[in-house]
Specification:
This protein is α+β, with helices and mostly antiparallel strands and 567 residues long. It has 4 domains: 2-65, Phenylalanyl-tRNA Synthetase, Chain B, domain 1 (2-Layer Sandwich); 89-276, Phenylalanyl-trna Synthetase, Chain B, domain 3 (Phenylalanyl-tRNA Synthetase, Chain B, domain 3); 284-354, Phenylalanyl-tRNA Synthetase, Chain B, domain 1; 374-564, BirA Bifunctional Protein, domain 2 (2-Layer Sandwich). The strands form 6 sheets. Strands 18-19-20-24-23-22-21 form a 7-stranded mixed sheet. It has a 5-stranded mixed sheet with strand order 4-7-10-11-12. A hairpin with a 3-residue loop joins strand 2 and strand 3. Helix 5 runs antiparallel to helix 8 (249-265), helix 6 packs antiparallel against helix 7 and helix 10 packs across helix 11 (342-353). 37% of the residues are buried.
Length: 567
């Protein structure tokens, strides 16, 4: 999520310098991927914070952690009471589409957007199209609710929300023909599909320069089917990202109301409206005790501090007692879909207090006796040897990101899928380390760091017939030195590591033999060396490196460490 700094300042009265805020965010909220004079980008990987996929959500968070009052107010949905025509809409499965809203707006004129709108979109990483289409993206970014505008003249008859037929096809806005199956949810008219629900619209119904009337869609679709369809079709849009994390009905009505008013400001007229489903968010209430807070965090936090932290974040507390161990009923704000249990509330208190302020304490129990494991000695010796060769250790996630899966065209059916992933970025466990190192190397190269020499030692996961996956420690090295043949330096590093380890009780494969043909598509056809068994070093094929946005040659090495140990 790219956060426009100027837009953020419209939503809150920021009381701290932007530079201080950027340092504070990783301590109190979430890490950053990148910063710029116009925006900062939140690192959403591994976080189930749907509220931070909207400007208002980020503004609420910044308001709390930077003690800066919000300047925006809730938007009331005023259109339910108006006497307007209904648009015919049929929902085939209310489970897959619990809320579906459609409004008709006439008298529009398509023009370029204002410079103010274009800057907001550009700072948010979205391209401006025209004033009519841009409103859907502006509302999505501000409220976190995706919307889609159809050219009403191109929609034939009743709108239906239904699952696709086997082998049904649709030409999406990017001009590509997509093959669908019975698990894909569609928006259709009487002539056929006009959009893949929650992902992308159909080409023929898009807004054009001649559009004067639109059908504006705002809906809530079941997250898991949207994520699966986006993954299978290779369509990871800004809309699908938000549907996958979860949406709220309150935000939907606020975003829809805001969009209608923006269209009215352009001269448009609301002439019809259809609202399907229960439009009220359920209020969650969780019991919280001061004793549990202090027990889990490990320090004494006063009841006033607990109330202050949670109130700043939008929670409403009703006190149950005040006998030295305060107890509250905590009402969770509608936008915090990630808060489910008491421990979630305690985590909120801890981060607002500041993890860095929590002192270290000596254990009040005996430390268990250390059991010597030869594997740990090998890992430690390896790390020291690699650092001696000038390499930098990195730690990546145990998952493949959606970008890695897409760029390398990995077959997800060969990977282990997490049963209940917290996001699309944590769905598939890695079965090798090198793809994640390639992603890290490419990110550094894009940031003008041209000499890359990194390594990781960590677990990989392979499917097997039993319920639990097979876990092995691997070593991977990624090297990119700006030359046309970085595998030469990688080979020298590998030999130096072997030499360094000769005095250790470590056995790494030392016989290196050149393969004439590389059997895998990911590597350079003649720059591949077997290191015995299933271990290897290779230069990654340029066409795959290019997909990560760089053209510098990258070599990698992958070794199954446990397979090298004496049996």
């Amino acid at each position: 999520m790219k956060v426009s700094i100027s837009w953020l300042k419209e939503l809150i009265d920021l009381k701290v310098p932007v530079e201080k805020l950027i340092k504070l965010l990783p301590l109190r909220t979430i890490g950053l991927k990148s910063t710029d004079e116009n925006f900062f980008e939140l690192d959403m990987k591994g976080y189930n914070r749907a509220d931070l996929l909207s400007m208002r959500g980020v503004a609420r968070e910044v308001s709390a952690i930077a003690d800066s009052p919000a300047s925006f107010k809730p938007v009331n949905f005023e259109f339910k009471t108006q006497r307007l025509c209904e648009i015919p809409v049929e929902i085939e499965s209310k489970e897959l589409a619990p809320v579906y809203c459609l409004v008709k707006i006439e008298n529009l004129k398509v023009k370029p957007s204002s410079p103010e709108w274009i800057k907001k979109l550009t700072d948010s990483g979205i391209r401006s199209i025209n004033n009519v289409a841009d409103i859907t993206n502006l509302a999505m970014i501000e409220f976190g609710q995706p919307m889609h505008a159809f050219d009403a003249e191109k929609v034939k008859g009743k709108i239906k929300v239904k699952t696709a037929r086997k082998d049904e096809q649709i030409t999406t806005l990017d001009g590509k023909i997509r093959n669908l199956n019975e698990k894909d949810l569609l928006i259709t008219d009487e002539a056929g599909p006009i959009g893949i629900a929650g992902i992308m619209g159909e080409k023929m119904s898009e807004i054009s320069s001649s559009t004067t009337t639109i059908l504006l869609e705002a809906a809530i679709f079941k997250p898991i089917p949207i994520r699966k369809s986006a993954q299978r079709l290779g369509l990871h849009s800004e809309s699908s990202k938000r549907f996958q994390h979860g949406l709220t009905k309150t935000n939907l009505l606020q975003a829809l109301s805001s969009a209608i008013k923006m269209y009215e400001a352009l001269g448009g007229k609301l002439t019809a409206i259809t609202l399907k489903g229960n439009l009220a968010d359920e209020v969650k209430t969780i019991k919280l005790t001061q004793q549990k807070v202090n027990s889990l965090i490990g320090i004494a936090i006063s009841s006033k501090q607990i109330e202050s932290f949670l109130t700043a974040l939008g929670f409403k507390l009703t006190s149950r007692s005040s006998d030295g161990n305060a107890v509250w009923d905590v009402a969770v704000p509608y936008w915090r879909l990630d808060i489910e249990i008491e421990e979630d509330l305690i985590e909120e208190v801890a981060r607002m207090y500041g993890y860095e302020k929590i002192p270290a304490k000596t254990l009040d129990t005996n430390i268990p006796d250390h059991t010597q494991n030869p594997l740990f000695g090998l890992l430690d010796a390896l790390k020291k040897a690699l650092v001696m060769q000038g390499l930098t250790e990195v730690e990546t996630y145990s998952y493949y990101s959606t970008q890695v899966i897409k760029n390398l065209k990995l077959k997800v059916e060969n990977l282990i899928r997490v049963a209940n992933p917290i996001s699309a970025e944590t769905e598939y466990l890695r079965n090798n380390l090198w793809p994640n190192l390639l992603e890290v190397a490419a990110k550094n190269i894009r940031n003008n760091i041209k000499d890359i020499a990194i390594f990781e030692i960590g677990k990989v996961y392979a499917p097997r017939k039993e319920n639990l996956p097979k876990e092995n420690y691997h070593l991977s090295i990624a090297l990119s030195n700006g030359t046309d043949n970085p595998i030469q330096e990688l080979n020298q590093i590998y030999k130096a590591v072997l030499k360094h380890l000769q005095g250790e009780e470590v056995q790494l494969h030392s016989e290196v033999e050149q393969k004439e043909q590389n059997e895998t598509k990911y590597f350079h056809p003649t720059r591949f060396k077997s290191l015995g068994k299933a271990d290897w070093m290779a230069e990654i094929h340029p066409r795959f490196v290019n997909k990560f946005g760089v053209d510098q040659r990258v070599s990698v090495l992958e070794i199954d460490i446990e397979a090298t140990m004496p049996q």
